[in-house]
Q: What sequence folds into this?
């Protein structure tokens, strides 16, 4: 427990209504979407960079830990206070400060919900493309910290491609501004890129300057249904090599779809092996042509049915299916080991077939879906960690151990195919044990040194990314 | 009713993904996790794991839920958060005693500086209610001595004559005539030729469908004109309407406060009141009552009286559902002031998500000759939340603000809905916004030009 006088100091900084130590509140800030829980000692709700600066200075002086948190929708445990300390919730810093239509930029506070920014700019005919499936509730700050991506990454890239500049409170409490409000800028090292994807370990982001695009004139949404998963995977590679760049190319396998109630209500064939959800956007005439081209590639590759969404409602329904997959997998088995691997796009069939074989070898339930267009597949191994009382502990434990082995083999497969073990969810605590499989000791050493320089006392978000620090 | 403990599996189904943060109206206002559906589920889980007690903070969080069911609909794992919260309230009532649960509510209003202005308003209205509204001699108030009446304070005014009271003084009313004599339909108002055309396709005159009308507290005490409108529309549609005078509050407000026993006894009394008649359907114009009669009554009485409650609940239809699907009225029957009135429609939570009814009220609006113009979030909660509006008035109106703005932005002349609770709340919200959009029940559109 933190000392009473530290709480007093913190109260002084943020005000009495913006700090809590009640057990009930601490519980509500102990988890994220990994479904794991670590109780903090206190939660504070600062309103600006100055308050956060004071908090971090105090942390350095008194030696307590500070963990930044957006919406707590993270999939790698980044916002969990694994070693206790103070959670800094950015929920109050949720203002869109400026949308500059002349210069195509937006300036936002970190707690702004991604979808809310998107709707606000779309009202002005502008476009903020990064679209994690969690966009209706995750925050831009969390997106920056994880370098979140989404289906549109295949054409538009990920969060890092839109961050022009940041205001960051460093772990030692200094406030720095990185980057520019301009599209170009090469003065000094690129601290902006260093911060993006640093998972809340190198600084707390308090302001974000984002690049916007003009809103594409129109989009077309296509759903292709396959009886053989390999045909679907091959279709992905074929579309990419045909030089049509869809704005979305999502893959879903049978197990993934089976959990989504909405799918059943859409009058689509029940006994399918895989679906592809494909979107093209841009000029109205051009996308008609592209949609035709994609339809043909799908059919040439043995698609059983190809459906082009007729109206907005159908588009919404199709996306609803896709977005519901991840959380509804719990219907297969209560716990999921969720890996967001990426492979070169031509290797998607190899990756998916390989994963299936590994799952089969270890007798595990497996569901795969994701942003196939950029080679990013969410591989889920479903297990039941919960052991009912009086139940033979051995068998379920064995399932968990088998799953761990399978994960390791999947990573070996992915790295062997020239891929990476995490495309967008980050390392946090979930993938910490595996980081050495992908990064060389030298690379890890450089990263640790960077952390050391910025956070000499190790106050900010400890216990993440690197197995020992 | 399932206890909180029996919801353990339901609570474990929650994977803490956070999806419900995007729809939960209390979170929308507070912007802090404990106010979200996910936070509340986590707290219930922690209580069952004995990590926390039924503390004041816990109780406050459980009370700060408008039971809008938006989380349940959005949840990819179908976690029934509103029912978990209801079970938690019942647990509070059981463990800490109902007086505690209740007094906590009042303590909460009166203690908190934030709610002081609301408390003042509350007190003055309450006085009004207590001192002039309730005619002792009617005997009716004793059947409705329930939280809704003493908590529903931002109601316009108590009606001069309660709906049921007015019924009881009309000897020709079918409620008092032994079955099977049907009622005499009210003659259509002079000049309303269109009403003649209204028809009951599936029934001929010899077998008029017999409908029991359930009023509910709000219609009985505050908005009897909606009840009257329903009776007229039903009779014009060729139905015989029976209004049992010994009906009671549906019990949902007390259930919302965790008082299962009172809710049960009210449910049983209502069963008894309607069982006396041979009815084809039982209908109500209140979305919350309807949801209660259909769904909650089974939960409350299903163990003890499964057959009786099933027979009762299977007959219940919302008035819009009854008119469109069962009585199949198809011709316009209205006289709107301007035939081209633009009407927007608010989906009551307990109608759309509770009963799955969304199309029928819209069909009725179009049937009335008005032009329907959708608002941007028609199914966003109005913020009333049963007694939430009294215990957390400012909070409740804060939720309502976006609703009122959405309505105003449509530019519609009239906002129609299908729940007297939503009507009262929306009227209040629009008034605060300085908008003069008229608020009506869909059924009123079928009858006459709605009064402002
Ligand atoms: C159903 C579902 C679907 C998802 N789909 C996707 C997807 O398609 N693509 C994808 O990339 N991710 C996805 N995610 C994961 C998650 O939503 C993203 O990682 C998101 O960026 C997290 O944002 P958050 O606001 O919830 O951050 P949190 O979970 O609160 O925090 C995440 C990390 O960011 C840090 N952080 C938060 N705010 C700040 C700040 N202001 N400054 C510094 N550090 C900060 C935290 O310390 C933590 O390390 C999904 C999650 C769910 C539950
Ligand atoms: S209740 Fe449902 S939507 Fe909300 S966090 Fe739990 S699983 Fe997700
Ligand atoms: S019922 Fe409504 S207010 Fe209550 S937790 Fe669910 S979304 Fe929130």
A:
């Amino acid at each position: 427990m933190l000392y009473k006088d530290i709480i007093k100091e913190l109260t002084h900084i943020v005000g009495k209504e913006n700090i809590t130590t009640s057990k009930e509140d601490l519980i509500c800030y102990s988890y994220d979407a990994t479904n794991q829980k670590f109780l903090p000692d206190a939660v504070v709700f600062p309103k600006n960079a100055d308050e956060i600066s004071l908090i971090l200075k105090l942390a350095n002086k008194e030696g307590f830990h500070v963990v930044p948190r957006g919406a707590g929708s993270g999939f790698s445990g980044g916002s969990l206070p694994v070693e206790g300390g103070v959670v800094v919730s950015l929920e109050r810093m949720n203002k869109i400060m400026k949308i500059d239509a002349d210069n195509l930029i937006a300036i936002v506070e970190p707690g702004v919900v991604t979808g809310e920014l998107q709707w606000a700019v779309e009202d002005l005919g502008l476009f903020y493309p990064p679209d994690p499936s969690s966009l209706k509730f995750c925050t831009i700050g969390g997106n920056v910290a994880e370098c979140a991506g989404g289906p549109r990454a295949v054409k538009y890239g990920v969060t890092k491609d839109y961050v022009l500049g940041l205001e960051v409170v460093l772990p030692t409490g200094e406030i720095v501004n990185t980057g520019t409000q301009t599209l170009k800028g090469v003065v000094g090292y690129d601290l902006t890129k260093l911060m993006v994807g640093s998972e809340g370990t190198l600084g707390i982001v308090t302001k974000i300057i984002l690049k916007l695009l003009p809103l594409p004139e129109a989009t077309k949404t296509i759903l292709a249904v396959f009886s053989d998963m390999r045909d679907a995977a091959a279709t992905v590679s074929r579309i990419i090599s045909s030089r049509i760049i869809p704005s979305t190319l999502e893959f879903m396998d049978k197990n993934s779809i089976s959990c989504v109630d909405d799918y059943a209500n859409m009058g689509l064939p029940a006994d399918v092996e895989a679906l592809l959800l494909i979107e093209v956007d841009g000029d109205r005439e051009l996308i008609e042509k592209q949609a035709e081209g994609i339809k043909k590639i799908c059919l040439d590759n043995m698609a059983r049915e190809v459906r082009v969404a007729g109206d907005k409602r159908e588009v919404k329904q199709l996306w609803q299916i896709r977005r519901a997959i991840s959380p509804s997998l719990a219907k297969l088995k209560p716990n999921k080991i969720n890996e967001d691997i990426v492979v070169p796009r031509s290797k998607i069939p190899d990756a998916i077939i390989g994963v299936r074989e590994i799952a089969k070898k270890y007798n595990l339930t497996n569901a795969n879906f994701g942003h196939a267009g950029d080679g990013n597949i969410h591989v889920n191994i479903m297990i039941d960690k919960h052991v009912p009382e009086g139940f033979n502990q051995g068998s379920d434990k064995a399932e968990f151990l088998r799953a761990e082995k399978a994960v390791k083999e999947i990573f070996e497969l992915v790295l062997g195919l020239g891929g990476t073990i995490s495309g967008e969810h980050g390392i946090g605590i979930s993938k910490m044990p595996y980081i050495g499989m992908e990064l060389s000791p030298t690379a890890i050493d450089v990263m640790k040194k960077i952390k050391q320089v910025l956070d000499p006392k190790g106050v900010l978000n400890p216990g993440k990314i690197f197995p020992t620090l | 009713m399932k206890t909180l403990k029996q919801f353990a599996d339901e609570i474990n189904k929650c994977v803490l993904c956070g999806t419900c943060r995007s729809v939960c109206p209390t979170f929308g206002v507070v912007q802090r996790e404990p106010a979200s559906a996910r936070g509340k589920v986590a707290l219930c889980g922690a209580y069952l794991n004995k990590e926390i007690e039924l503390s004041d903070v816990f109780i406050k969080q459980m009370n700060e839920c408008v039971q809008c069911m938006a989380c349940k609909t959005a949840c990819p794992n179908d976690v029934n958060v509103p029912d978990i919260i209801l079970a938690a309230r019942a647990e509070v009532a059981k463990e800490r005693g109902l007086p505690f649960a209740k007094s906590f509510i009042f303590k909460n209003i009166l203690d908190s500086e934030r709610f002081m202005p609301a408390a003042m308003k509350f007190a003055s209205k309450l006085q009004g209610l207590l001192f002039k509204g309730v005619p002792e001699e009617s005997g009716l108030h004793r059947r409705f001595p329930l939280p809704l009446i003493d908590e529903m304070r931002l109601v316009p005014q108590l009606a001069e004559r309660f709906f049921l009271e007015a019924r009881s003084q009309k000897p020709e009313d079918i409620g008092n005539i032994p079955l099977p004599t049907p009622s005499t339909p009210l003659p259509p108002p002079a000049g309303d030729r269109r009403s003649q055309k209204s028809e009951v396709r599936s029934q001929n005159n010899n077998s008029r469908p017999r409908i029991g009308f359930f009023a509910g507290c709000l219609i009985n005490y505050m908005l009897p004109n909606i009840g009257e409108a329903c009776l007229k529309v039903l009779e014009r549609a060729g139905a015989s309407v029976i209004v049992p005078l010994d009906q009671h509050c549906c019990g949902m407000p007390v259930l919302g406060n965790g008082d299962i026993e009172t809710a049960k006894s009210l449910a049983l009394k209502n069963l008894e009141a309607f069982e006396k008649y041979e009815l084809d359907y039982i209908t109500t114009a209140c979305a919350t009552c309807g949801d209660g009669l259909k769904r909650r009554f089974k939960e409350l009485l299903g163990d003890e009286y499964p057959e009786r409650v099933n027979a009762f609940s299977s007959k219940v239809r919302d008035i819009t559902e009854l008119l469109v699907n069962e009585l199949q009225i198809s011709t316009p029957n209205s006289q709107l002031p301007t035939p081209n009135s633009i009407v927007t429609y608010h989906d009551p939570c307990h109608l759309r998500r509770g009963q799955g009814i969304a199309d029928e009220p819209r069909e009725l609006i179009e049937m009335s000759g008005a032009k329907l113009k959708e608002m941007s979030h028609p199914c966003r909660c109005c913020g009333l939340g049963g007694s939430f509006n009294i215990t957390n008035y400012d909070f409740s109106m804060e939720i309502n603000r976006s609703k009122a703005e959405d309505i105003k932005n449509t530019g519609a002349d009239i906002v129609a809905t299908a729940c007297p609770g939503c009507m009262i709340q929306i009227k209040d919200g629009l008034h605060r916004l300085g908008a003069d959009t008229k608020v009506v029940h869909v059924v009123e559109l079928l009858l006459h030009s709605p009064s402002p």
Summary: Chain A has a mean pLDDT of 92. Chain A touches chain B through 38 residues (CB under 8 Å). Residues A 32-33, 67-75, 78-79, 90, 110, 132-134, 138-139, 141-143, 145-146, 148-150, 199-200, 204-205, 326-327, 424-425, 461; B 17-18 surround flavin-adenine dinucleotide (ligand 1) (CB under 6 Å). Residues 218-261+275-322 of chain A form a domain with the Alpha-Beta Plaits fold (CATH 3.30.70.2190).
